[in-house]
Design brief:
Distance between the termini: 36 Å
Strand content: 15-25%
Shape: globular
CATH architecture of the largest domain: 3-Layer(aba) Sandwich
Bound molecules: S-adenosylmethionine
Number of strands: 8
């Protein structure tokens, strides 16, 4: 099974429940919404790439008068998004090939999702393409230079490959089936791969994009803190790139 099939068929069953129940609407996510809200005027057309169920971002913006569009690879999540948010114009699609015309959105954003894409550079190209000149493209990444992120990633890789851990995982799956709780996962797919910030810098250079800002999620209060030195980002779990097209 490849990662895209995993995201469509397995992860979506987990995410449809976990999004609201487990993660809620965090302070960090609110700060991302306020940031966009300050820069982009209401009534504008905005696109959420990998929208999931539409909660919390699409929901936040639709309630404030934006024309929200959304795309996600998982049909289950798009069905739920339509049910929960009648005003969001969402559809099933792959972030690597956005089915919108050039220069269409005032803002294109993507949060909590870049680690799940096979080809993030292609997604960035697409986000830039569909955004109007002077519009905003904003996305966050899980920082692959951060110790905690690396540890979690290595743990996930071990869990998928090590035979003993695999046995534990299978036992857990049987527990999930018996208790009818959670989503059993028999695959060896590593679905979440953190990103090196340098890779984004290099891609933006290739695209000749000069107008961009880099923020981090502050470790103290989850606020967005501006940082412009790629070499000093290792302490931060999340890095946010804001591009002006
Ligand atoms: C962790 S969820 C985050 C969803 C939403 N952004 C949020 O914060 O609630 C990751 C999302 O990425 C979507 N996804 C993964 N690969 C994708 C792709 N290639 N194209 C579109 N969506 C994708 C998944 O289906 C899932 O909804």
């Amino acid at each position: 099974m490849n990662r895209k099939t995993y995201m469509k068929n397995i992860y979506s069953k987990y995410w449809i429940v976990a999004r609201k129940k487990k993660y809620g609407f965090s302070e960090y996510e609110k700060n991302l919404c306020y940031y966009i809200g300050e820069k982009i005027s209401k009534e504008s057309k905005i696109l959420e790439v990998a929208i999931g169920t539409g909660f919390p971002f699409g929901d936040f913006f639709q309630n404030r008068g934006y024309k929200v569009y959304g795309v996600d690879i998982a049909p289950l999540l798009i069905e739920e998004c339509k049910k929960l948010n009648v005003k969001i114009n969402c559809k099933v699609g792959d972030a690597e090939n956005l089915d919108y015309r050039d220069n269409f959105f005032s803002c294109t954003y993507c949060f909590n999702s870049t680690s799940y894409f096979d080809d993030l550079c292609k997604v960035i190209d697409e986000m830039v393409r569909v955004t109007i000149p002077n519009g905003m493209i904003i996305f966050d990444i899980q920082n692959r230079n951060n110790k905690e992120i690396i540890q979690n990633y290595n743990k996930m890789c071990l869990e998928k490959s090590d035979q003993i851990r695999k046995l534990f995982r299978y036992a857990k799956n049987f527990g999930k089936i018996i208790l009818r709780k959670g989503v059993p996962d028999w695959t060896n797919v590593i679905h979440e791969i953190p990103i090196y910030p340098k890779m984004i810098y290099q891609h933006l250079t290739r695209l000749n994009i000069k107008h961009f800002k880099v923020f981090v999620k502050s470790n103290e209060n989850a606020k967005l803190e501006i940082k412009n030195e790629v070499d000093f980002l290792d302490n931060y779990l999340k890095i946010i790139f804001v591009i002006t097209k």
